[in-house]
Amino acid sequence: MADINLLPQLDAPHPLTKTILPQSPPFSVPSLIIAYRTVLAAETEAVKRYNQRQLEGAPKPLKDLAANNILASRVVGFLFPALQNMCHTLGDTPVTRLATEVDSAQGDALYDLGRKYIDHLICSFRTTTAPLKPPSSHPSRPSIDQLDDMLNDAIQDSATEHRSARTRALARDRYHCMVTNSIDANSFYKHKAIKQLQAETGAAVRTVQTCHIFNESILQNTQPDDEFPQQAGRQNASAALGILKMFGLEDIVDRLMTIGQDDVASASGVHDLLNILSLITDIHAAFDHLKIAFEPTDEPHTYDIVFAHPEAAIGFFGLKKRITLTNFATRRRFKQAGGLLELPLPEPRLLALHAVCVRVAHMSGAAQALDDLDRDVEDTLVLARDGASANLLDMKLSPLVQTVA
After folding, report:
1. How does DSSP assign 287-314, residue by residue?
2. Angle in degrees, 0-180, between the axes of helices 60-85 and 390-397, rounded to the nearest 10
3. CA of 324: how far to CAs of 181, 200, 298, 304, in Å?
4. Boundaries of each HNH nuclease domain copy (predicted)?
5. Which pairing describes strands 5-6 and 302-307: parallel, antiparallel, or unpaired?
6. Residues 119-169: pLDDT tens digits?
7. In terms of DSSP H, where are the helices of 182-231?
8. Distance of CA 198 to CAs 43, 206, 278, 323, 328, Å?
9. What distance in Å separates the CA atoms of residue 377 and residue 345, rounded to the nearest whole number?
10. Which DSSP state fits 280?
11. Which distant-in-sequence residues (6+ apart) come within 8 Å of 178 by Cβ?
12. CA atoms within 13 A on the CB side of 195
């Protein structure tokens, strides 16, 4: 197997009985160092409480709470270097705002801050249930012989739902997976033009899916004027978008919250192509579960493809370590929201934040905890009478569990 980009591999599972955050921060900004030391103290205190409750034989809910606090402090701690390393794409605002929040946290409030970032940042870029993807074009449409006709057909589609986003994304991405260069099977079997394109490129034929960077389900049933949303789902959306705004991504929030003229069920801006990737099924699943990241480089729209585990990269035909995204239909335009817009490439700042979440979730142990939670939720039909399932119930009812409708 060719060399691949990997996240730092841990020597052992994330222990709860000792601290794991680096004692010396990998940055030299004084204000960040002061805030980071606060997080180090919080992790130390959480580990101390956990060990004490283990020694005392405390009830499981109390031990679970202590473990939860350890995880929350580690998430905040690993956010510092992850955001700092993405300053070339995100700027200094995210890590500076994080330090301000840490400085304002008193006592156990820092653990609540960590849970906020799990619930409303990490889980905003994590999808646990992949929906059945619609075909790239309406079944009744005849086969198209010329590629230009296919592109024109795609970009004239001005609807703002998932199906139309897929059609436009495939046109933008040359009907290929961005990472493996595989060509979309549905388009290949349906259109002579794509058969000709495959013959020219020699690409493998695979199912290519529409992948959302920012979790599509979060913006369901959300309106732009929801200043004080009452429903839990809307509160989750408000908190998630609030973090993006705090990090300086107000313009992206405005795009995500665009509502189509006939779309009253959700913010159809989540289907804006700035939030869309074209990926084969397995890469899509890995991206959704924070197992793979697109890490922006210094070159425009150029990304290092980074895997959390080396085993996950085995078997992918045509796998690329670095990709540069281009618009295949660069001279074409489509109508949306009353104006003419080019087919936008995926937004680098959204991909940078997804990459931050991958690194933080992996290094802190949150990725494993969320995967375990998904399995527990699926396997647990009846909660324990002695309260041993209380933490699971709390997690099950929280925004940590994200599914796509």
Report:
1. HHTTSEEEEE-SSTTEEEEEESSGGGGT
2. 40
3. 12, 20, 11, 9
4. 200-295
5. parallel
6. 999 999 998 754 434 334 444 455 555 555 555 555 555 545 667 888 889
7. 185-190, 192-201
8. 53, 11, 16, 19, 15
9. 36
10. E
11. 277, 278, 279, 323, 325
12. 7
| Structure tokens that stand for 262 in this block | 């006939």
**Closest C-alpha to 351, from 319, 304, 310:** 304
Please give the pLDDT value at position 315: 78
163/331 Cα distance (integer angstroms): 22
Of the candidates 78, 82, 96, the one whose C-alpha atom is nearest the C-alpha of residue 22 is 78
| Residue count (the chain) | 405
Type and span of the H or E element at 48: helix 30-56
Q: Where are the beta strands (DSSP E) in 247-388?
A: 276-280, 292-296, 302-307, 322-324, 333-336, 339-342
Q: 341 is written with which tokens?
A: 């817009």
> Smallest Cα–Cα separation from 354: which of 256, 215, 251?
215
Least reliable range by pLDDT among 105-119, 204-218, 334-348: 334-348
Q: Hey, what are 97's tokens?
A: 């705002």
Q: For tokens 């008193």, what's the residue?
A: 106
Residue with token string 């139309």: 164
Question: Sign of torsion, CA 187 188 191 194?
Answer: positive
CA distance 384 to 405: 29
β-pair type (208-212, 205-206): unpaired
Can you tell me the distance from the alpha carbon of 26 to that of 80, in angstroms, rounded to the nearest whole number? 9
Residue with tokens 């899916």: 209
338-359 as b/e: b if 16+ CB within 10 A:
eeeeebebbbbbbbbbbbbbbb
Angle at CA of residue 212, ends 207 and 217, nearest 5°: 115
Reading the block at residue 118, the tokens are 């799990």
In three-state secondary structure terms, 334 is strand
